[in-house]
Write a structure and sequence with these properties.
Mean pLDDT: 79
Radius of gyration: 21 Å
CATH class: Mainly Alpha
Largest sheet: none
Distance between the termini: 37 Å
CATH architecture: Orthogonal Bundle
Low-confidence stretches: 30-45
Structural class: mainly alpha
Number of domains: 1
Order of helices and strands: HHHHHHHHHH
Strand content: under 5%
Number of helices: 10
């Protein structure tokens, strides 16, 4: 590994380590009252509140996906790959995207279930962002790189500006691959949401009341939606290969 690459990799790792430590410490110290909800066993042990918290994450999920696509286009179309900004950001994305979904699921369980008394909208939203953005950015980058360079060169030769080349040529050609990656990320997020609900029911209801374990209907809906998203992702990927 070249010295420059080692330096960029070290900077990315240190930055992510510091950010994670701050995130973890802040998440453990935030009061539940920041949600605007009263604290107490009636709220913290309520299955309805958990569902409401998960539903509040839907706009964050969609916003993170749109922001991720924009960041990917900025990285690939406006930053030089040899520049230090690109090198550091790209390595951070690779590190975060390579973390297994199980670890993100455990992080979500910790803040949504086991630390619900200290939860906040900010911490929940940041957990969703960590789950969604790295993979979406990475898959969008791959989609952009798959567009033939000759398409860009032909458009530039005709005098088109960069933003017009992106909108009229790059994005349409990369759309199927981008959507395939987005559906994969959505499938991942829905599966983890279902896992959070199932573990919540198991820890807060089954163990405390001694009732027989069951899977809530909302978790089943989420799992089926996750499966559907995965199927759509596979279909779009296959369609791209056919084309």
């Amino acid at each position: 590994m070249k010295r420059a690459e080692l330096i960029f990799q070290s900077i990315a790792l240190i930055t992510l380590a510091v950010a994670f430590i701050l995130f973890w410490n802040f998440g453990k110290g935030v009061s539940f009252a920041e949600n605007g909800l009263p604290s107490g066993p009636t709220v913290t042990d309520s299955y309805v509140v958990l569902q409401e918290n998960l539903n509040r994450m839907i706009p964050i999920l969609l916003g993170s996906i749109l922001l991720s696509v924009a960041i990917a286009f900025y990285l690939e179309e406006y930053l030089a790959r040899t520049g230090w900004k690109y090198q550091i950001i790209a390595r951070q994305i690779i590190i975060l995207a390579s973390i297994p979904s199980l670890l993100y699921g455990l992080l979500g369980l910790y803040f949504f279930v086991f630390q619900s008394k200290k939860g906040s909208f900010f911490i929940h939203a940041l957990t969703v962002v960590l789950l969604v953005m790295p993979r979406t950015i990475q898959s969008t980058q791959m989609a952009i790189r798959s567009v033939d360079i000759s398409i860009r060169e032909a458009a530039f030769a005709l005098g088109a500006k960069r933003w017009r080349v992106i909108i009229d040529h790059v994005f349409p050609h990369a759309f199927s691959v981008i959507m395939s990656g987005i559906f994969t990320v959505i499938s991942r997020a829905l599966a983890i949401a279902a896992l959070i609900i199932v573990v919540y029911v198991w820890t807060k209801h089954t163990l405390q009341s001694g009732d027989t374990f069951y899977i809530p209907g909302s978790a089943i809906v989420l799992l089926l939606s996750s499966l559907l998203s995965s199927v759509l992702s596979s279909f779009l990927e296959a369609k791209t290969n056919w084309d």
